[in-house]
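Quarterly update, task 2.4: iron/sulfur cluster-bound model.
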Amino acid sequence: MLASDEPMSVEAAIEDVRRAAMGCLGCKLHALRTQVVFGVGNPRSPLVLVGQSPGEQEDQTGLPFVGPAGQLLGECLGKVGIRREQVWITNIVKCRPFERTSSARGKNRDPEPDEVEACQAWIEAELALLRPKVIVCIGAPSAQLILGRRVSVTKDRGRFYTDHRFRPAQVLAVLHPAYILRHHGEELEALRQQLVDDLESARRTTARLLKEPAPTPPAPPAPEPEAEAAPREQMSLFGDD
Ligand code: SF4
């Protein structure tokens, strides 16, 4: 058993947050969900991917990015040498927003502003514990919440932002795979390649930042050993450039 003054590991701390989120009644989406879809992956990853909200398959399985868009994301991560279990993947909204239709499955919809606002405490708690070097925002709603400003992903993708409240992480916005899948033929291939290029850029930046000294903390207390160890352990996952 840990001594009471021993710091909690990031795994234990994120599990505590996950358990708390499972019972969240913070917005109207709780009434329609099968389950809360919390982040998954490696909580010590220096690279975190943040999407918008769960769809039907995510709602059924309790896992983010497992539908067709998730498969495309996994495929593009694989092309840059990253397995999805190596990184942390989550959403800004944890319950599926959808409209009831004549189909039993309903129709996915974008989360409404009050739902995004109600849920943001969970993504803030995740990022505070994970302390990533790089945050990849998948799609505009995620980028807008993380950066705190309007973003056009088609125009602003591929660029790293440092002026936001999750500093010192660098933030990159990428196309949402669901958007890519709405295209066909050469256009689809071109957009898929943009996503691969942006993920490669995120991987290279993560690898570079892992080699740099950690920023000096503004004030005591001293850094926690558990949390400081995480990025160094991840260096081999992101390779050298
Ligand atoms: S979407 Fe977020 S705030 Fe709303 S009930 Fe689910 S976990 Fe809670």
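Highlight for this quarter: The first strand starts at residue 40 and ends at 41.
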